[in-house]
């Protein structure tokens, strides 16, 4: 992903590629795309030696074709970037929070975060599946679960039956593919804690894979509500704990209700990207659901949210 971003930046970084008359600055385009170690000049492409008229015409024609291709590529990349920038906010009036939403956010006594595609950039179960060689089939089930097209418990059982991860595989995955924390989340959690707002991680993922994330963000393990993988005496996969509330549809709503009752919070906010996070917004549960679309834009979820954000800085900026 990083390498592709770098490539995109190099394509659009030079503003002098296209002149006012629509022509391309070939030297700038070729040098920028080739990079400092492999830069090419026009002189290198057309060697400084006598050429027959026919040879010169052929080379000029080739350069014109290359110019047109590069200009077209640049246009496509720029258009794609513009669409990407606009897509998350298109059609959603809730990109701008109401006064009531802001008041609830600023006075929250507790904030519950989803983990996968919210606190972390990846879907933990998909990463584990890919590590264990079952990535594609599991990713399809994850998409169904996140959009709410199948019951979460059905999707969870189906995915784990495909992966069947051993304890050693889980541990190896965490070492070789450590969770990637979303940009800005550490600052947001730090700000919330400074305001004496309690923070919880409520996830349909696995406690074994979430503990390192909580530790890095300074969240105590008792503030993690997540599924528990079960292993046999030799570390072989033995299933998951079905009594965990987040192992089934509506489970996050139940988990949030329990958190609220156990701690007596007057105001509680849920932040996430999926249908199970949206379910937490109900009487006795979360007072506010903020859809974080900085990793995944799930339109069916976003359109029902109280507030849609694509950057955690948006939330930080509205805190006292």
UniProtKB/TrEMBL annotation:
Q: Does the keyword Transferase apply?
A: no
Highest taxon listed in the record's lineage:
Eukaryota
What PANTHER family does UniProt report for this protein, alphabetically?
PHOSPHOSERINE PHOSPHATASE
Give the matching InterPro entries.
HAD-like_SerB, HAD-like_sf, HAD_sf, PSP
Q: Which keywords describe this protein according to UniProt? A: Amino-acid biosynthesis, Hydrolase, Magnesium, Metal-binding, Serine biosynthesis
Q: Which organism's genome codes for this protein?
A: Leersia perrieri
Show the catalytic activity.
O-phospho-L-serine + H2O = L-serine + phosphate
Q: Which SUPFAM superfamilies match?
A: HAD-like
UniProt record similarity statement: Belongs to the HAD-like hydrolase superfamily. SerB family.
E.C. number: 3.1.3.3
A single Gene Ontology CC annotation of this entry is: chloroplast
Protein name (database record): phosphoserine phosphatase
Q: Which Gene3D superfamilies match?
A: HAD superfamily/HAD-like (3.40.50.1000), Phosphoserine phosphatase, domain 2 (1.10.150.210)
List, separated by semicolons, the cofactors it needs.
Mg(2+)
Q: Which GO terms describe its biological process?
A: L-serine biosynthetic process
> Which pathway?
Amino-acid biosynthesis; L-serine biosynthesis; L-serine from 3-phospho-D-glycerate: step 3/3
User: What positions does UniProt annotate as the active site of this protein?
Assistant: 114, 116
Alphabetized GO MF terms: L-phosphoserine phosphatase activity; magnesium ion binding
| UniProt entry tagged with the keyword Hydrolase | yes
